[in-house]
Amino acid sequence: MTATGSDETTGDVSGRSETAPVLEMRGITKTFPGVTALAGVDLAVRPREIHAVCGENGAGKSTLMKVLSGVHPHGSYDGEIEFRGGPVAFRGIAESERRGIVIIHQELALVPELSIAENIFLGNERSTRGIINWGGTLHAAARLLGRVGLPDNPRTRVAELGVGKQQLVEIAKALSKDVELLILDEPTAALNDEDSRNLLQLILDLREQGIACIVISHKLEEIRRIADSVTILRDGRSVETLPVRDTPDAEPELSEERIIRGMVGRDLGSRFPERRPYRGDGAGEVGFEVSGWTVRHPTEPRMVVDDVSLTVHRGEIVGIAGLMGAGRTELAMNVFGRSYGVYESGSVAVHGNPVRTRSVPEAISHGIAYVTEDRKTFGLNLIDTVHRNISLTSLPGMTRRGAVDEHREQQVAERYRESMNIKTPTVFEPVERLSGGNQQKVVLSKWIHAGPDVLILDEPTRGIDVGSKFEIYTVIARLAAEGKAVLFISSELPELLGMCDRIYTMSAGRLTGEVGREDATQESLMRYMTMDTEPKVRT
Amino acid sequence: MTTTQDRTPDAPAPDHLPGQQPTGAILLDLARNNVRQYGMLIALALIVLLFQIWTDGTLLLPSNVSNLVQQNSYILILAVGMMMVIVAGHIDLSVGSLVAFVGAIAAVMMVDYNLPWVVALVLSLVVGAVAGAWQGFWIAYVGIPSFIVTLAGMLLFRGATQIVLEGQSVAPFPQGFQQIAQGFIPEMGPYTQYHNPTLVLGLLAVVALLVQQIRDRRRQAAHDLTVLPLTLFVAKCAAMAAAVVVITLTLASYHGVPVVLLILCGLVLLLGYVMRNAVIGRHIYALGGNREAAKLSGVRDKRVTFLVFVNMGALAALAGCVYAARLNAATPQAGLMFELEAIAAAFIGGASMRGGVGTVVGAVIGGLVLGVLNNGMSLVGIGTDVQQVIKGLVLLAAVGFDVWNKRRATTT
């Protein structure tokens, strides 16, 4: 079985063998006013294949999938698409779904207030003459849930399910449409380890049932685990298609480094930048100190953060590792102006001076910045421009006689566009049109411009590509070298190990360990992160 | 989605520089980014032209232009406030009732208690602000949706109006108060064919406009930002100046500038400036665009929301006084459906239902579209029944165009 589909199979359309691609996209070119998003992309997916598509943000992955699924209708792009042996020209997503191509977006498209069954058959209701056949709906839903391994009652409201289970409902919904080719866009981006593992296993099971699958992912390790081959996009072009393994069950032969090289067009060398120590005023002093911080859950009588104390020296990058629900974000957001939960006790000091942080403006005024883990919900005004998003935290400092100095605002934005390498046509572009990595750079710019002494970074590289990650690491290292105290919350242990001077671990709201850079390994951290602590119930 | 690959740390910098586009591209950009507002401005111009022809020139007769301004002033005042409320992500259904309520309070103060009209006016504005604060409190600090709070306010203030007026009309008002809505600035100086102070005001407006445009251009150029090519810039300034001159001459050949137009211009300049340039204006847009992100960026969301409603209350009070002064009476039925006219004006003028989008000038344009339609259709003798139908269709068409235009922008 060969891996790169296009070359071998173009002349083979008539007598299709087992290796004939189920999907073949040839020379797909898609331009938007002023920009070329795709330039002659080829993609071939064989039957029963898990085909990964990788590329940095902005490489054209999402656009390619939109072309495939008919979101960009036939005629708005150049090139040919063949599906199951015949040319197709989808004018909308309904047409591609009718042919069995279903896309599951990163942002799930479920209605939280409806039940699992209602969601599965949404738009595709089991009904006779407009009246819903509830028996048939529930029965069919239960069968589909069985296929995806979700034991929940199909009458359960989707809002009551975690993200992992919601993802499974999406897949059940796709199965209900007799899917032949399933497209998953960053399926595990929002999932914890266990849910990710289940989902990946499900994808493998679906392959056994004869469903081909395109997976878009930034997680290279995941790609190596499940994919049969990978197509790499760069700059709107398909640079190469590589086999990941020889036979479906064999060990992967393709290394992560090889994939990265294809994505960035060169060897990345180190994945983390050089750190330089801070030697200025107050070097080695404690820049940020939290003592005895305790936070109650907003609605339940339990502590989500319990008696946490930690210190960050000036110029130091200190990590906080923990599983989902360990209380890391809750700690950070409560310290940052009580933005989450109910404050119980604890104190904060910046540069040795005790400060109060009862509101966000107060926290900011004491030089604390919190960069959220969820940039779209909490970090950016998506419909507003790059320059106004950057200036939002520091507007009072940009005024002349009470008016915002727009010219200065623009200059500031231009400066960050340059220094942070934000990819945008102009600083007047709405942030929603930027790719994830560039959006994250906008959020970082906004907080750097606020001039903080303490930066709390919550998952600063979530959902962004390798090249952008390196750039963001470089910025973080630079901030530390300038003498700022950096608290770095992350679920990716390799990046904590690569960036931090010390790492705290949290589990169930408590600090469970503190490890220096030299002693830290993924294993030691994981041990602390999964340490059992007493469940706490207090009122 | 951006198309270029994210640059890796040591890759060469992209060689295209901002600010060096051909004229055509700049124009296209301008048009694309301002389709909504330019579109509505063009629509307004077309509607004016239509009725100008249809009424054999009556529409733009100096006397009718004055009338048009006075007739629509209170809706425009409300529309400006409503735009700010909608940008912040809220709605205010109570303004019509508040117009009636404040008119009633003002009337009782002047007619029953014989307060000087200036005192009555100031107290009325305070009453409006307090009413706005009352609603703002429930919305911002308690967290009840504005739709509910102001629906309650709609009933509450309408009932309160009837209580204050005891179901009767109260009239007449002192001369000075009536002048707010009906008066013109007084004539001064020697007899010319025109109204002298109006000419002076017009001239000042043109000078201020040009100075501001030129200063802006210089500043932009100094900061290496993209500027319009000189020819276009001159054309733009000439067009704007010409518009001011035409309006000035029209008004000056009748009784001059209506008092209420001065008030209105002051408000639009002030609030437009606040929304564009003041920190609180930015915060209003940020709140409407993404409340959570704004909060986490240090925007005092509750205070800003509260102030937006205080402002709306005060503007509704002003509109209430203007309306009462125009009728020279306070009636229990004053201001019926005004909230809907104001909301329609804001949406025709480019506000977004989801908040975060809209401009003060847009609200004025939207209000003028409705106003000219009203006036023009009355002049040609179309009944109020058909007028309602047409206004409904215009609202639908304006927002429909917007939706269509946005969809086209995202799918091609």
UniProtKB/TrEMBL annotation, chain A:
<dbReference type="InterPro" id="IPR003439">
    <property type="entry name" value="ABC_transporter-like_ATP-bd"/>
</dbReference>
<dbReference type="InterPro" id="IPR017871">
    <property type="entry name" value="ABC_transporter-like_CS"/>
</dbReference>
<feature type="domain" description="ABC transporter">
    <location>
        <begin position="288"/>
        <end position="533"/>
    </location>
</feature>
<feature type="region of interest" description="Disordered">
    <location>
        <begin position="1"/>
        <end position="22"/>
    </location>
</feature>
<dbReference type="GO" id="GO:0005524">
    <property type="term" value="F:ATP binding"/>
</dbReference>
<keyword id="KW-0547">Nucleotide-binding</keyword>
<keyword id="KW-0762">Sugar transport</keyword>
<dbReference type="InterPro" id="IPR050107">
    <property type="entry name" value="ABC_carbohydrate_import_ATPase"/>
</dbReference>
<dbReference type="InterPro" id="IPR003593">
    <property type="entry name" value="AAA+_ATPase"/>
</dbReference>
<keyword id="KW-0677">Repeat</keyword>
<dbReference type="InterPro" id="IPR027417">
    <property type="entry name" value="P-loop_NTPase"/>
</dbReference>
<keyword id="KW-1003">Cell membrane</keyword>
<dbReference type="Pfam" id="PF00005">
    <property type="entry name" value="ABC_tran"/>
</dbReference>
<keyword id="KW-0472">Membrane</keyword>
<feature type="domain" description="ABC transporter">
    <location>
        <begin position="23"/>
        <end position="260"/>
    </location>
</feature>
<keyword id="KW-0813">Transport</keyword>
<protein>
    <submittedName>
        <fullName>Putative multiple sugar transport system ATP-binding protein</fullName>
    </submittedName>
</protein>
<feature type="compositionally biased region" description="Polar residues">
    <location>
        <begin position="1"/>
        <end position="12"/>
    </location>
</feature>
<dbReference type="GO" id="GO:0016887">
    <property type="term" value="F:ATP hydrolysis activity"/>
</dbReference>
<keyword id="KW-0067">ATP-binding</keyword>
<keyword id="KW-1278">Translocase</keyword>
TrEMBL record, chain B:
<feature type="transmembrane region" description="Helical">
    <location>
        <begin position="38"/>
        <end position="55"/>
    </location>
</feature>
<comment type="function">
    <text>Part of the binding-protein-dependent transport system for D-xylose. Probably responsible for the translocation of the substrate across the membrane.</text>
</comment>
<dbReference type="InterPro" id="IPR001851">
    <property type="entry name" value="ABC_transp_permease"/>
</dbReference>
<feature type="transmembrane region" description="Helical">
    <location>
        <begin position="304"/>
        <end position="325"/>
    </location>
</feature>
<keyword id="KW-0812">Transmembrane</keyword>
<protein>
    <recommendedName>
        <fullName>Xylose transport system permease protein XylH</fullName>
    </recommendedName>
</protein>
<keyword id="KW-0472">Membrane</keyword>
<keyword id="KW-0813">Transport</keyword>
<dbReference type="GO" id="GO:0022857">
    <property type="term" value="F:transmembrane transporter activity"/>
</dbReference>
<keyword id="KW-0762">Sugar transport</keyword>
<feature type="transmembrane region" description="Helical">
    <location>
        <begin position="115"/>
        <end position="132"/>
    </location>
</feature>
<feature type="region of interest" description="Disordered">
    <location>
        <begin position="1"/>
        <end position="20"/>
    </location>
</feature>
<keyword id="KW-1133">Transmembrane helix</keyword>
<feature type="transmembrane region" description="Helical">
    <location>
        <begin position="345"/>
        <end position="373"/>
    </location>
</feature>
<feature type="transmembrane region" description="Helical">
    <location>
        <begin position="255"/>
        <end position="275"/>
    </location>
</feature>
<keyword id="KW-1003">Cell membrane</keyword>
<feature type="transmembrane region" description="Helical">
    <location>
        <begin position="225"/>
        <end position="249"/>
    </location>
</feature>
<dbReference type="Pfam" id="PF02653">
    <property type="entry name" value="BPD_transp_2"/>
</dbReference>
<feature type="transmembrane region" description="Helical">
    <location>
        <begin position="138"/>
        <end position="157"/>
    </location>
</feature>
<keyword id="KW-0997">Cell inner membrane</keyword>
<feature type="transmembrane region" description="Helical">
    <location>
        <begin position="75"/>
        <end position="108"/>
    </location>
</feature>
<dbReference type="GO" id="GO:0005886">
    <property type="term" value="C:plasma membrane"/>
</dbReference>
